[in-house]
Amino acid sequence: MRHDLRTAQRPLAGLAVSAASPRVMYLDAHPHVGPVPNARKIKALDAYFAWLRKEAKKNQAN
After folding, report:
1. Tens of pLDDT, residues 34-53
2. Contact 24, 33 (CB under 8 A)
3. What angle do CA 58, 59, 60 make, to 5 degrees?
4. What residue segments make up the domains of the chain, in order of their start?
5. Averaged pLDDT score across all residues of the chain
6. Can you tell me the distance from the alpha carbon of 59 to that of 52, in angstroms, rounded to the nearest whole number?
């Protein structure tokens, strides 16, 4: 299937974003919408980096 960017016909149907049901667009040979891969691991990394930012901010204040 070919998509004409001039007329904005792209495979984005069903890409509704919400915190309750996060979805991503997979851009591979057959573009499609699907669940976020490794969502639990991504949240763990996000928490870790939030902690790092907090510590860095705390150390700048000292």
Report:
1. 898 998 999 999 999 999 99
2. yes
3. 90
4. 5-61
5. 80
6. 10
Q: Residue-wise over 34-54: b if at least 16 C-beta within 10 A, else e? A: eeeeeeeeeeeeeeeeeeeee
E strands within the chain? Answer: 23-26, 32-35
Tokens of 40: 């639990």
- Residue indicated by tokens 């902690």: 51
44 alpha carbon, distance to own chain's centre: 14
Query: 15 CB contacts (<8 Å, ≥6 apart)?
Result: 23, 25, 33
Residues making up the chain, counted from first to last: 62
Give the integer Cα–Cα distance in Å for 48 and 52: 6
